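Dear support,

We are seeing what looks like truncated structure output for some complexes. This example has two components. We would appreciate it if you could run it in full and send us the complete token output so we can diff it against ours.
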Amino acid sequence: MNPPLTIDFESIDKLPGLLQQLKFNNQKNPIYIILPTEHTMTHVFIVDANLTDLEIILFLKSHSEKFFGHPLNKLSLDYKTESASDTSKQRITAVAAHVSLIQTIQVYFDKEKIMLHSISIKHETTINLLPWREIQRKQHIQRRNKRFILYGLTMIVMLFFIKYFLINETKEINDTTHSIKQKNKNMIIPNAKNHIALLKKLQSVDSKKLAAVKKNKSSLALLSAIANNISDNITLNSLTLTKKEIKLTGVSNQLSDIHQYNAILQKNLPWKNSQLIEVHNDDQKLSLMHFTIEATS
Amino acid sequence: MSLFNIYQKSANSTLHFIFEVTIAFFISLFIFLVGYFFFLENSFNNYYSAKREQKKAISENNQKKILRNADDRTKKLLSTWAIKNTDFYHAMQASETPDQLLQLLTISAQQSGFTIIQAAPVVSSQNNFQVKLSGNYTDLFHLIDELNNTAWPFLLEKLSIKNKNQYALLLKVNNQ
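Here is the complete output from our reference environment:
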């Protein structure tokens, strides 16, 4: 590394030659320009200690004409802060130079493509009259914008990931569904309804069959009782049997036999309310008596 | 050099951070909404549609499994019926018509000793049969026994004896 180099020059016109020389010597160290005091203006003032950097610079810019006698667009400004005796205040040393001078220096450096670190004044090396605040603000905004772009890109990448995930998942689900559907298609249950219908029919008809057999047997018992208890003197002419009623008509030559037969039926029929409802003599043969017996369930 | 750091450490850094987070949030929201409606909506719809389809297929599969198990149980019960009541099972399995039932009835009547005068299904109800028979009183007992031994539930609804050895029977087959 080359040792630090200090060059004093009287007029700004000599700067291009010096810069060419520096370039020729391949100087890599940071370069500082210190302006002579006759090219700068200084103003000291006291402000509130709570003021931020931005507020101070705005204050300074709005008061440039009052402090330095030139409008803001003609000046390059910078300041340094010092603590005042009162802790609630701060002492500001503002320095200004003509913007044309600063721009001229910058143009020379740009032309030679040499980086200029700062333009300060004697005994105040922390002052930098280059527009570093604007550059810093611009850089800050650029960095922030880059971050916003990064957020955006991240979101877009996420959207792609989500889309990829959804497509993948959908494909997987469709494959599974297809395989389930295939299984469903192969799972044939022939005659399931017929089997159920047949089983129901078997159960239903079986119970009905049992009921029918029981009722038929009951009818047979009635018919048996009617036939088995009849005496020799009685002749039955008709018989009607329904679910609720039996009606018998007959003929006999003995009234007592008719009554006896009715009494036996009352006793032996499964339906106990047997009644002799009618007896009359035959119109032609008076010794014969016609009768009607009814029994209900 | 520390001068350059003054701006960065200013009291407004928190506000800058909040501002940046807010903007980042709105950028994310905007991109997400735009991305959703122009880029993801179809994929989401396809995804949910596929899910619904899968749910339907699974449900159908479960129903078929339940049906298959139920059918297995039914077949087992049917085979028990077939073993224990072979004739009854086969009679129920065959689809009977009123004509076939009437045929069975007339055959039973003849086997019981009756002569058939008339036999026909009742017009209003195809499972009711009106039969006029000629024979002995005891043949009635044979006929009822015979019918009780068939697979079908023949029920004697009405018996009418108006003339000697002539029997009018109304028989009902309740097989529904």
